[in-house]
Amino acid sequence: MAANPGLVRLGVVSDLVDQTLFVFLILTLYLLLQHVNIGVARAMVVLVALAAAITSLNAVFEFAGLRVAIGAVNLSALGTAGSNGIVLLLLDTQHYGLLIAQVFFGLWLIPLGYLAYKSAGMFPKWLGVLLIVGGVSYLVDLLAAFLLPDVSQSIHTFIVIPSALAEIAMVLYLLVIGVRTMKPVQPDKRIPATA
User: Fold this and answer.
1) Disulfide check for 152: which of 45, 100, 111, 144 has CB 3.0–4.6 Å away?
2) 94: Cβ–Cβ under 8 A, 6 or more apart, which residues?
3) Helix H or strand E encompassing 83
4) The predicted structure's pLDDT at residue 195
5) Cα separation of 110 and 21, whole Å?
6) Which residues of 14-52 are buried (b: 16+ CB within 10 A; e: fewer)?
7) Is there a contact between 122 and 180 (Cβ–Cβ < 8 Å)?
């Protein structure tokens, strides 16, 4: 960290920008899908807001670790080993905070998948199912990381594949195909005959 403080600062700023854009994305998806089920759409917004808030707050730990590493915080009484230990503790806290945010990263995909599935042709049903499976995969990965860390190391690579596929498929679908919308019904423009 001390060798590349600019890179760490850039990482913190990019996390904050990423989460801000994530909130705007979910607001757009909310406007697009609220007609399917407003309660589920609201739940999706709340879950993303929680994920973004936790992730943004975790950036504080990374930035604090940087400040200790470059000596901006005077911890000389602890010595070099003590300062390094605090840096590692702050970075570990940030890491596990992101794992906790993963709960909400996984959970928001489930209502999004439900809304996509029930969207009456705006999205294909397979995409909705894939998003739900991806959300469940996030949760399984998180539970394994906390409850079975040894097992988590061996299954992590495989269990995140459905999550990655779901998110990439949604982005590609929106970019390449777009949302299928119904054309509005035009009122009859003929003038009725008068008797």
Assistant:
1) 144
2) 58, 59, 61, 62, 65
3) helix 79-117
4) 52
5) 20
6) ebeeebeebbeebeebbebbbebbeebbebbbebbbbbb
7) yes
Identity (one letter) of the amino acid at 145? A
DSSP 8-state code for residue 118:
T
Q: What is the pLDDT of residues 152-182, one digit of tens each?
A: 888 888 988 999 999 999 999 989 988 776 6
Query: Residue 79 gets which letter from DSSP?
Result: H
Identity (one letter) of the amino acid at 151? V
CA–CA separation, 112 and 2 (whole Å) = 41
What is the pTM assigned to this prediction? 0.80
Enumerate the domain spans of the chain.
5-177
> How many other C-beta atoms lie within 10 A of the C-beta of residue 153?
11
The CA distance from 105 to 47, in Å, is 8
Distances (CA, A) of 147 to 103, 110, 161, 186: 14, 22, 20, 58
Query: Do 40 and 104 form a contact (C-beta atoms < 8 A)?
Result: no
Helix count (H) and strand count (E) of the chain?
6, 0
For tokens 């070099």, name the residue. Answer: 80
Q: How confident is the model at residue 82 (pLDDT cuts 50, 70, 90)?
A: confident
70: which 2 tokens?
A: 């470059």
